[in-house]
Amino acid sequence: MDRAEHPDRRALLAGGLAVGAIALTGCSARSTAPWAAAGLAQEVRPVTPAAAFARLMDGNRRWVSGHLHHPDRDPDRREFVAQAQEPFGSVLSCIDSRVPPELLFDTGLGDLYVMRTGGQAVGPVVTGSVEYGPMTSGTPLIVVLGHQRCGAVEAAYKSFRDHKPLPGNLQAIARALRPAYERARREGGADPVDTMARAQVRLTAADLRSNRDLAPLVRKRTLAVVAAYYSLDTGTVEVLAGAPSRS
Hints:
The protein has about 250 residues and is of the alpha/beta class. The protein contains ten helices and five strands; from the N terminus they run αααβαβαβαααααββ. α1 packs across α5 (about 125-135).
């Protein structure tokens, strides 16, 4: 992303450090989580990519099994994060009503930054929103989450295949998905729309992983950018690329 689009980056970084200090102070002041009374151990905010990734995937396993914890979702938590936040993950997902990241990862208030666009289409504003957590408060994980039967991807695929532009600003989404369409054409497969959906996730994650502002954090292993795919049928999140190692 062009540096000129972030004239207040230093201010954001300074503000993020202040937010982190406030959040840490708040954590030390409150020794128990509201849901500890239910027999669940208090969870400390993950500070490494591997720990954050493990927390999300544990939550997804609970979502699939139906054994949900519903953490961080009561008035005490609302009051706790009202003045400051320190999410442990950022998720860029689709607008699809069946793919709410907070639910399918069994998380709650203050746990995730969430950006949602049709088909995970990106542009400067979306990319800046994804960068916000890692660059202001040290959020150690970004997940780009595509999904099964994505309507935005299917519409873009048919638009390109049939040479029929989409109406209004929907065409802007199609343009953003063009590289995924081209890759899907090269790769083929029994379900070209699904191939394109997976390609979009991989390409978007790769672009974020290598962009000028996030790449240094990835190289230092303080940030991981994971490409993932959600099954509407099973509720399972499949990792396509970028899972952080525990080493």
